[in-house]
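Example 9 (inverse folding). The structure is encoded as follows.
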């Protein structure tokens, strides 16, 4: 699938449902892009290339202009999507805990488990990142009938893996042995224009994987993951299904199997730009393939499609132009960051604003919504659509009132809460509150008027600041392994020592390392 996941929320009156939605048990498809920038789709403003399939789905569905990820980085955002719990309550709160790459708990109730109760077939394909092998957090232990892909999110940085996991068992790809992932990372640390990564591609623009002995035997991960997702849909066409396709694209290091239509684009300033564009275009192409299949099978009008990204802007980190310390500068060519301050790993808007849309022909009319929504809303939304009861405790709100033309039943003033180690943020109605650490003063912004967060209004609205501080206190529950906001680096080191002493370290592996 070539989609990015988007949250549902509509402006009052923006949508009118054409039939009752609750309990209709539609097929549910979630396509989650990895590090997709806010303006990487042409319908969101990209002008250097176009994404016609995703544009059409977004235009014919509900497009949310104030949609948020559940976290500013991969693992915790995926955890909030799956469980409907924000990072003040979730089992996974950061890419790394004191134990390493941590996992969902046995006690977590996921979307897949909720939908299985209502008779859904469930399938995951792609990048998981919230449960290493042999932990309780693997997808087949969290409600998926079929699971295939990268369980270790660091291994998902490669596109020619030594192996993938299918339902907990390794699937080896010996033709990929020797693939030099380190070389690709080195390329990404050289600014575009000062390197010539075009040497990685032949005259037809096809990748020559460095270190691979026989290119004809190499297996590009997206090929097999897409094929597996298509097979899942075909096998389950006659029953309700939930497909979660978490593509690796366009996460760095920037590498693609083929440069495609960008091979001879002389206006592109570097091969890296061609690679990034081709990765985004591949998501779009698969979106078209998937939707075409749904139509061919006669199930398009009973299939809800959600597209979103897992976090905000990160592209400059792969283009060697700085990171948080440089405030995540926008790419001067693609200009795909959006008007936001900050980027990935930060709770400033640039780290958590995402492209997000929902499409369901015949059930949802097209519209554009500015109501604040987030990935956390997906679990209660899907539970209501499937008629599942009871719905497990969660921090989201069902978007069904918005989809069914009853926006008065949806609170657009509810608080959305994030934490990231010591950093905390809240979005509530027109306000965005942000605090880098508990020792720092609260920053307060009228976000709809000041999307770049340039005018701190905290001194002018002390009563709003007091409310935001109360919400921050109430929404956080301490976690035994993550860095809680009030803790110090010494506190976290003690947790690391305890994890080591208890033999609970969980080691993630980079790229194509073995085993």
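The amino acid assigned to each position is listed next.
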């Amino acid at each position: 699938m070539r989609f990015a996941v988007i949250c549902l929320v509509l402006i009052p009156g923006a949508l009118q449902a054409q039939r009752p939605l609750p309990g209709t048990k539609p097929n549910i498809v979630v396509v989650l892009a990895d590090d997709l920038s806010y303006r990487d789709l042409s319908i969101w403003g990209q002008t250097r290339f176009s994404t016609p399939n995703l544009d059409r789905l977004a235009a014919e569905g509900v497009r949310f202009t104030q949609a948020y990820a559940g976290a500013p980085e991969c693992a915790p955002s995926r955890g909030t999507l799956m469980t409907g719990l924000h990072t003040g309550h979730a089992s996974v709160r950061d890419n790394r805990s004191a134990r390493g790459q941590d996992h969902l708990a046995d006690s977590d109730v996921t979307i897949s488990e909720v939908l299985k109760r209502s008779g859904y077939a469930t399938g995951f394909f792609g990048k998981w990142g919230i449960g290493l092998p042999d932990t309780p957090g693997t997808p087949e232990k969290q409600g998926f009938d079929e699971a295939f892909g990268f369980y270790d999110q660091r291994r998902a940085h490669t596109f020619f893996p030594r192996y993938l996991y299918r339902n907990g068992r390794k699937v080896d790809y010996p033709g990929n042995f020797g693939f030099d992932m380190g070389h690709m990372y080195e390329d990404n640390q050289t600014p575009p224009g000062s390197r010539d990564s075009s040497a990685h591609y032949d005259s037809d623009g096809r990748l020559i994987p460095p270190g691979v002995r026989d290119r004809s035997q190499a297996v590009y991960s997206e090929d097999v993951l897409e094929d597996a997702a298509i097979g899942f849909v075909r096998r389950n066409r006659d029953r309700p299904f939930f497909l979660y396709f978490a593509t690796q694209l366009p996460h760095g290091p920037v590498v693609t199997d083929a440069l495609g239509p960008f091979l001879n684009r002389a206006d592109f300033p570097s091969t890296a730009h061609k690679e990034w564009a081709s990765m985004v275009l591949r998501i779009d192409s698969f979106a078209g393939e998937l939707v075409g299949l749904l139509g061919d099978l006669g199930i398009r009008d009973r299939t809800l499609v959600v597209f979103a990204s897992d976090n905000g802007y990160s592209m400059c980190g792969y283009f060697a132009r700085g990171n948080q310390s440089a405030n995540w500068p926008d790419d001067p060519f693609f200009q795909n960051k959006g008007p936001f301050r900050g980027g990935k790993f930060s709770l400033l808007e640039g780290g958590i604003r995402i492209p997000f849309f929902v499409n369901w022909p015949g059930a949802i009319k097209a519209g554009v919504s500015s109501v604040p929504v987030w990935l956390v809303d997906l679990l209660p939304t899907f539970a209501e659509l499937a008629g599942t009861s009871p719905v497990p405790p969660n921090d989201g709100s069902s978007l069904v009132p918005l989809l069914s033309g009853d926006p008065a039943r949806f609170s657009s003033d509810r608080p959305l809460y994030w934490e990231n180690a010591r950093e905390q943020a809240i979005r509530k109605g027109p306000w965005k509150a942000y605090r880098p650490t508990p020792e720092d003063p609260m920053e307060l912004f009228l976000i709809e008027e000041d999307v770049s967060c340039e005018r701190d209004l905290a001194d002018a609205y002390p009563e709003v600041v007091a409310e935001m501080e109360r919400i921050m206190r109430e929404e956080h529950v301490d976690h035994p392994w993550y860095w809680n906001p009030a803790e110090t680096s010494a506190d976290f080191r003690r947790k690391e020592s305890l994890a080591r002493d208890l033999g609970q370290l969980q080691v993630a592996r980079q790229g194509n390392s073995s085993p």
